[in-house]
Amino acid sequence: xxxxxxxxxxxxxxxxxxxxxxxxxxxxxxxxxxxxxxxxxxxxxxxxxxxxxxxxxxxxxxxxxxxxxxxxxxxxxxxxxxxxxxxxxxxxxxxxxxxxxxxxxxxxxxxxxxxxxxxxxxxxxxxxxxxxxxxxxxxxxxxxxxxxxxxxxxxxxxxxxxxxxxxxxxxxxxxxxxxxxxxxxxxxxxxxxxxxx
Length: 197
Description:
This protein has 5 helices and 8 strands.
């Protein structure tokens, strides 16, 4: 079959698929699922907190470093900016959550298992830096990193027989630490960040 005809057939197939998508208005499955999960999260927040207030969200937690180390996992969040005491609004809410089977599970900082689930295993120095950055960004709850910037290259990584210790100096007085055990699984997170200006 001549090359021009093959190219023509391929192009007409692609155009037919695009036309069908445009005509049906069907979004890709991942987008549809994410939209449904966001709706579940919004409904849960309203039922749980009533007339809550926040500065960001409810929205999907979108951060390239987090998405790289948690492949296929989707997080949702609300964030209230710190502005001193008292809080800026009554019933202010900040949290990270996952939606599974139409139910919401808020991630609690004390439960390492919740942050370990779906996290890429650490096998190298580069893996340790990337995973530590993703975990720290997620635990700080700010996908845009407006309060504290985390750069994977800024981690000081020490490897021992017990695993990986990743320290991140925000400045001379504040150091956060993320640890992975000898199997490369998250074992602890300690956030020690400077006060918000």
